[in-house]
Design a protein that fits this description.
nucleotide-binding, alpha/beta, Adenylyl-sulfate kinase, binds magnesium ion, APS, globular, binds adenosine-5'-diphosphate, amino-acid biosynthesis, two-stranded antiparallel ribbon, ATP binding
């Protein structure tokens, strides 16, 4: 019997079917690919391309996209530092469960604060947390401005926008960093290929 946070008198329920059984069934290892970067850096594009590439190789994936999750699970949260932290904590916990289910869970969220990403890394067992940093210059993201949000942030119509008047803390020790090469952004397919190679090297795409 124990106390966890605000939960009292709770017990852990074991089940006969475990993670290893599910991984055998799926012929892959559960893990989390966590894509972080500024708005407009290409996180969602990469997440979807990676999901498609892995799917066509016969690997089961699920994408947890920041914007999509704010339509449901996280719709009660805003963009204050406290709410951003809670947003990431919840997605980290969900990603941990998805990895435990045997899936390659691809999370694409700005996740601006280092300590929040480090929390997510810490709760995923066996170093199965692969942090991918979309290291694109603010000028590129702002020039893209697909959703028109940078324009609104510059005009002061959105407060607390990451990269404008809210901080982005780049990873210090990420597994994969994606940058422009000679001023050119690699194609989504080449970025996804790089991640697939990494997962393959680590033996995560087989049982
Ligand atoms: N590798 C890329 N090369 C060129 N344009 C890209 C690339 N990745 C994304 N884009 C474009 O940049 C914009 C923002 O991408 P998106 O994936 O929505 O970013 P984020 O999810 O990080 O906010 C979109 O218009 C997308 O088509
Ligand atoms: Mg996105």
């Amino acid at each position: 019997m124990s106390v966890i946070g605000k939960s009292t008198n709770i017990f852990w329920q074991e089940c006969q079917v475990g993670k290893v059984d599910r991984e055998k069934l799926l012929k892959q290892k559960g893990c989390v690919v966590w894509i972080t970067g500024l708005s407009g850096s290409g996180k969602s594009t990469l997440a979807c391309t990676l999901s498609r590439e892995l799917h066509s190789k016969g690997n089961l994936t699920y994408v947890l996209d920041g914007d999509n999750l704010r339509h449901g699970l996280n719709k009660d949260l805003g963009f204050s530092a406290k709410d951003r932290t809670e947003n990431i904590r919840r997605v980290g916990e969900v990603a941990k469960l998805f990895a435990d289910s045997g899936l390659v869970c691809i999370a694409s969220l700005i996740s601006p604060y280092r300590k929040d990403r480090d929390f997510c890394r810490a709760i995923v067992p066996d170093s199965r947390f692969i942090e991918v940093f979309m290291n694109m210059p603010l000028e590129l993201c702002e020039a893209r401005d697909t959703k028109g949000l940078y324009k609104l942030a510059r005009a002061g119509k959105i407060k607390g926008f990451t990269g404008i008047d809210d901080p982005y803390e780049p990873p210090l020790n990420c597994e994969i960093e994606i940058k422009q090469e000679n001023g050119i952004c690699p194609s989504p397919l080449s970025m996804a290929g790089h991640i697939v190679d990494y997962l393959e090297e680590k033996g995560l795409l087989q049982e």
